[in-house]
Design a protein that fits this description.
The structure holds two protein chains of two kinds. By secondary structure, chain A is an alpha/beta fold. Chain A has eleven helices and ten strands. The N and C termini of chain A lie far apart (44 Å). Chain B is built from eleven helices and no strands. Classes of the chains: A alpha/beta, B mainly alpha. The interface between A and B is medium-sized, with 31 and 25 residues.
Chain lengths: 286, 321
């Protein structure tokens, strides 16, 4: 059974597209259900015992000091951490009830369903803006008719709030755009394949404040259609964009990272249960 | 060019006595400028020598040289043989080198890949005379059978028209030997450019759900394109100029033919010079030098062509990404 059907067969409503954002709400199912997840790189125990429910069609921020395993955790949600040699996990990650780590599940197919945006914008430099947007679609489905391709390009670029800026130069290289535009191009590339989940690994840390603000606005729109998990170092950003917040911290020096607490962003930022969460958020460490 | 005018110091040093750093800068500037000029001088010297000595050979009448032909009739089969054998060698070596480089970089454990890389580099250390001996004594004999098979089964193609050589010392054998000789340099360069593909881009492809091969196709190969062309051109340069191996392997008779397996083969410029030079005298020597000038110009043209190819889609090359 392909991952596509694995992830889609429980969704009864058609997957809303970015242009139809907000008009066809999906059933409020649990987006991602992480249970007792341990992540290892070879002998190194990177993340320990994470249990976290990530709600669908909302933004979940993952915060915490450097080296606490937030990025590793994020990458384990679409099995991108397996790019590193010796990486393995114990525990389960369920997307719409199906385990990504069940035997026989192909990580390649997982990644086609769960999009990712990286810290530094990484459009393919050898491709035009149009081909960048279509890159994932072509990997997934092969050949496209010209008008289909044009429709996907426009819908994805509109979804990423980039269409008006680039519609006259779709054949120009993506590398010629500004950093913020490149990052929105990467988001367009990720949503072109209509994933269910969008993972963002510090998507604004290489951008200036204006571009950051554009991306944050975009995240606010995208959550109507996608389940979004964002790793950020920027506490204000987490407070601005997210509905839920998960705070990660090292258990101690040389110890693996772990989830300290999670909950609605308003609660985590105003009245956290754990004193170390409060210390981090108020800037007393990290 | 006058070296007495030093450029004004760019920073707060202005007005103060020359510091130690500035002396170092000047020495370095002088050394690097000298090195660059030396190359130009050597190149100009070679070009002047070839032209001055070659022109009498070009203008010589047919009965004054050993070949008994006009220069054009003498040099054309050699030019053809040189380009033909080098092209064949590239056609064999480049796909193999790219495949090996990809395998070593992306498909085997790092340790094993490095070891394999060293072994391939060792190939470059084998002297061309040894390759020549191997091609002449071993490979040619082994290929007689395959050539006969090609003649019997694919003889309708002009490349395999036959009659198949009884010794196996054909232009295809020479091209195979050349391919083995240029394989290390092409592989080494391909390996280097593949290794430098930014991890960020590889991850971008993988995160879109690319398999490893799709990742290589969308990211690694386009990124390494100009590097691969550069490596192929270095290999081509070596194949064009290779003397000993071709001279030893090829049984040449100065014809122009696309037949790969017959016993009548075009020779190449360098092999021909090496074989003829000892017995040549008078204007025959000038004719040989003139053929060297032609090779010089071909190599130049090939290099400019390669550069043009590399530059054509520069903004898409990803060199600055």
């Amino acid at each position: 059974m392909s991952m596509r059907s694995v992830l889609r067969d429980s969704a009864t409503a058609p997957v809303p597209t970015a242009s139809a954002a907000g008009t066809s709400p999906r059933p409020a199912a649990i987006g991602i259900d992480v249970e007792d997840l341990d992540i290892y790189y070879g002998d190194v125990h990177a993340v320990r015992g994470v249990t976290l429910a990530i709600p669908a069609q909302s933004v979940t921020a993952v915060i915490g000091p450097s080296g606490c395993g937030k990025s590793t955790f994020l990458r384990s949600l679409n099995r991108m951490h397996e790019v590193a040699r010796g990486a393995r996990v114990e525990g389960t990650v369920r997307v719409d009830g199906r385990d990504l780590y069940a035997p026989g599940v192909d990580p390649v197919l997982v990644r086609r369903e769960i999009g990712m945006v990286f810290q530094r914008p990484n459009p393919f430099p050898t491709m035009s803006i149009r081909d960048n947007v279509l890159a994932g679609v072509r990997l997934n489905g092969g050949r496209l008719k010209k008008d289909e391709a044009e429709a996907i390009v426009e819908r994805s670029l509109r979804g990423a709030n980039l269409w008006d800026e680039v519609k006259d130069r779709l054949n120009r290289p993506g590398a010629g755009l500004s950093g913020g535009q490149q990052q929105r191009l990467c988001i367009a590339r990720a949503i072109a394949v209509e994933p269910q989940v969008l993972l963002m690994d510090e998507p604004c840390s290489a951008l200036d404040p204006i571009s950051t603000s554009a991306i944050e606005d975009l995240i606010g729109q995208l959550k109507d259609s996608y389940t979004i998990v964002i790793v950020t170092h920027n506490m204000q950003q987490a407070a601005r964009v997210s509905d839920e917040t998960a705070f990660f911290n090292l258990a101690g020096v040389g110890e693996p990272g772990q989830l300290v607490e999670s909950g609605p962003t308003t609660k985590i930022f105003s009245n956290p249960d754990n004193p170390s969460t409060e210390a981090y958020i108020t800037g007393r460490f990290g | 060019m006058t070296d007495t005018s030093t450029p004004p110091p760019p920073t707060e040093n202005a007005g103060s006595a020359p510091s130690k750093g500035r002396v170092g800068d000047r020495v370095f500037l002088g050394l690097s400028r000298g090195a660059a000029l030396t190359i130009l001088v050597i190149l100009a010297g070679v070009a002047i020598f070839l032209t001055a000595e070659g022109i009498p050979g070009i203008t010589a009448s047919p009965d004054e040289v050993k070949s008994g032909k006009t220069f054009l009739a003498f040099v054309l089969p050699l030019v053809f043989g040189t380009l033909w054998s080098a092209t064949l060698a590239l056609l064999i070596a480049v796909p193999l080198a790219v495949a090996v480089a990809l395998f070593v970089t992306y498909y085997v454990p790092r340790r094993f890949g490095q070891t394999l890389g060293y072994v391939i580099d060792l190939l470059a250390a084998v002297p061309s005379v040894v390759f020549g001996l191997w091609g002449m004594r071993v490979l040619a004999g082994q290929l007689v059978g395959p050539y006969e098979w090609l003649e019997a089964n694919l003889g309708f193609l002009p490349f395999f028209g036959g009659p198949a050589s009884a010794t196996g010392r054909t232009i295809l054998t020479a091209a195979i030997v050349l391919a083995v000789m240029i394989l290390p340099i092409v592989t080494a360069i391909a390996r280097e450019v593949f290794r430098q593909t930014p991890v960020l881009l590889q991850e971008a492809a993988l995160a879109l759900g690319a398999t490893r091969w799709e990742m290589i196709r969308t990211v690694v190969l386009p990124h390494g394109r100009s590097g691969m062309i550069g490596g192929a051109m270095l290999g081509l340069g070596r194949a064009l100029g290779e003397t000993m191996a071709v001279a030893m392997v090829l049984s040449a008779s100065g014809v122009i033919t696309f037949n790969l397996i017959s016993s009548t083969n075009p020779s190449t410029i360098p092999a021909n010079i090496a074989l003829q030079f000892n017995e040549a005298s008078g204007l025959t020597v000038n004719a040989l030098i003139a053929s060297g000038l032609v090779l010089f110009l071909i190599t130049f043209a090939v290099n400019f062509g390669a550069r043009a190819v590399v530059n054509r889609r520069k903004e898409f090359s990803g060199a600055d990404a």
